[in-house]
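Submission checklist for the structure archive. All mandatory fields must be present; incomplete records are returned to the submitter.

[x] Identifier: Cof-type HAD-IIB family hydrolase
[x] Organism: Planococcus shenhongbingii
[x] Residue count: 256
[x] Sequence attached
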Amino acid sequence: MGKLLLLDIDGTLMNSKKEIPASAKEALIQARANGHELAIATGRGPFMIKRVLKELNIDTFITFNGQYVVHKGDLIHKEALNTDTLSDIVEYAEQRDHPIVFLTDERMVSTIDYHPDIDEGIKSLKFPHPAMIEDFHLTHEVYQALLFCEEEEQKQYHETFKNMQFVRWHRVSCDIIPEGGSKASGIKHLIKATGHAIEDTIAFGDGLNDLEMMDIAGISVSMGNGHERTKELATHVTDHVDEDGLAKAFSHLGLI
């Protein structure tokens, strides 16, 4: 059996122009031909990765940092955020003028009509500012939320909501996921379906939300553009995503 390759999107598969380098695409096609299985592991939601899935012909993915897992097109695990906890966070954030964006498997919705931080953060993912719907989280399954605040303002949330994690992904935003939720928990659900042993997994990432995944995987690779903590933890550090880092890592590991 080949390896199960777990690929983060932003900064790993996609370069700084939010494009998949030709070298990476070629490497993925070759790795698949060599018997390895490809899976996406991202903080994004399913609706946000449709183009990538189609472009790479992938139908297995961990989204929302482990909250929503699909294997060969079938949903094998989903865990929505607790509605009461979300309500408490929303109230706390509103008192501090920190907007929140809710994510379902199909769309994103804002607690506010417009905010420059939301515009900056969401635009970096090449998506428009989401529409506002009041109390959206009370009537929909929300798998992840984005809190918009500066890094130093984040600490108070960690202290107040100990059953949740706030994982920074952007200068003005962090993901809100349950304590214990991560791409690593998504991998545990996924390998039951694929039949791989954990030793047969290779994780590729660059961000803070990749740390648990890299820790649990048999082998881990940090991109040269990765966060310092990601580089420290990884088994290997490859070149920058803009300098064919992913293809070079595949070659180094003998996948291609």
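[x] Structure attached
Curator remark: The mean pLDDT is 97. The two ends are 15 Å apart (CA to CA).
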